[in-house]
Amino acid sequence: MTITTKDLQQLFAGIAEDIAAERDHLCELDGAIGDGDHGLAMDGGCQAAAKAVGALDVETAPTLLFNVAAKAFLNAVGASSGPLYATAFMRAAAAAKDRQTLTDDDFVRVFAAMATGIQERGKAEAGEKTMVDAWKPAADAALDAWGTGKPLPECLDMAVHAARVGCDATKDMTAAKGRASRLGDRAIGHIDPGAASAVIIIATMAKFARR
Ligand code: ADP
Ligand code: MG
Ligand code: MG
């Protein structure tokens, strides 16, 4: 299926809507092991990105659209999630370079590039109780499924499943990165808020792929 700039504008609007619906829950999760602002940060960043992207002409190249999203997200967010998602969107821009529309193959590469960007920006590995625990297995699952010839919607459904499993697993972890790393064993028993918001975004991307 061909993915146009208009489709990507709708994707960003969908992400903003789904994150907004979970804003308070994400703040509660962050309240338990962080500073309680994760819902506000993600909501502010996603609204700003959706607005900036939505204002672009439909002829805008996808690479520019992702760079606009990155800048808007970074400017709107004063928390750790700001530079992490800004990097994700910049890597998406690089993966979409020289395209006027995206193929399913491009979209899988965009998705995987976002995960790699977050991982490299935060220098976190899976198992350190961060959003990487959702993004990394999700990207691996999507790439694996795509490599075995599964259609895009199925690849992203498998990514959502892997993200959920990864997010749930953060509950039993101590944190090695971010604010929660100061808590030691007291972080155990709580889901990582960044992993929870990652599941929401990945699920919106999967919904988009099934459209
Ligand atoms: P802050 O902690 O600055 O208030 P947020 O509340 O927006 O930032 O985001 C917290 C989330 O950011 C954590 O739950 C975790 O998932 C993620 N995070 C923090 N540090 C890192 C890192 N180095 N790499 C990846 N993710 C990180
Ligand atoms: Mg926070
Ligand atoms: Mg904060």
UniProtKB/TrEMBL annotation:
The keyword Transferase applies. SMART domains: Dak2 (SM01120). It comes from the Bacteria. Gene3D superfamilies: 1.25.40.340. Transmembrane segments: none annotated. The keyword Transferase applies. Keywords: Kinase, Transferase. One of its GO terms (molecular function) is kinase activity. InterPro entries: DhaK_L_YcgS, DhaL_dom, DhaL_dom_sf, Dihydroxyacetone_Kinase. Residues 6-207 form the DhaL domain. PANTHER family: TRIOKINASE/FMN CYCLASE (PTHR28629), TRIOKINASE_FMN CYCLASE (PTHR28629:SF4). This is Dihydroxyacetone kinase subunit L.
